[in-house]
Amino acid sequence: MDKLLAIRMFIETVDAQGFSAAARKLGLATSSVSRAVDALEHDLGATLLNRSTRQISVTEAGARYYQKARRVLDDLADADAQVSDRGSEPVGRLRVCVPVEFGRQRIAPHLGRWLARYPALELDLSLSDRLDDLLDGRFDVAIRLGAAASDADMVCRPLGEFRRWVVASPAYLASRGIPQAPQELAGHECLRFNYASTRPLWRFNQPGGQVEVAVQGRLCSDNADVLRQAVLDGLGLALLADWLVAADVAAGRLVRVLDDWECGPEHARSQINALYLPNHRGSRRVGAFMEFLEGLLNEAPR
Questions:
Q1: N or C: which end of the chain has fewer CB within 10 A?
Q2: Given this structure, which CATH class describes domain 164-265?
């Protein structure tokens, strides 16, 4: 028995939820896949799959084995990729983690042309706002918005910056008036991103000085698109990234106010950073993705 091949067949069977579907993906006969999994179970002395005429299910032992075996195959694929990832063209699988709305709005619409440029590259893109999996080695690179990473175990490469705009719907401004100075925001309904700060301050800068305004409002969220929708619905003003609302402003669905000021939440940065582990220095896969993203950031947000 080729145990590595049998393990791959077992994993494909679990992923596809059946021998037939796994066999189609692997380009093999269903009977070959079934026999390989049978042989693996015999070798292990444990039942990995419950079989019925209609479906298969994973046993408790099978679930534990699947998790360990999946990690082994992923590590092997990663080792293969790293050995071959120092040539002139990026090859292998690249695992990328990006913030949810940034990934949907700024990256997803352009992936087709990027992947077409690198036919030997496979992309595994995850939308998440967490960094835990990067440190665990699940991802090769993570894109994060805000201040540079302080973790000494990660390399941080700045890719660009974005701006934050104060925006509101035409209907809200018609009913509540257009603020002409930052201080007037104190009398408005301000929809706030949750930065876990006890003092919700918006900071405004001009060449002549800086103004900090303690804003308040009935809605606070840790998801920018929730705030964007609330602003579109006329619930108040919000401080949102230009890449998120530029199309709404261009279409007249939202209006920028106080646009003579540079603005941002207290202590928040407007950097876009690529984070990766030191063992990915020189990786053509990681480098190709960062070059792709830098090109996007040089374009005006749409």
A1: C
A2: alpha beta
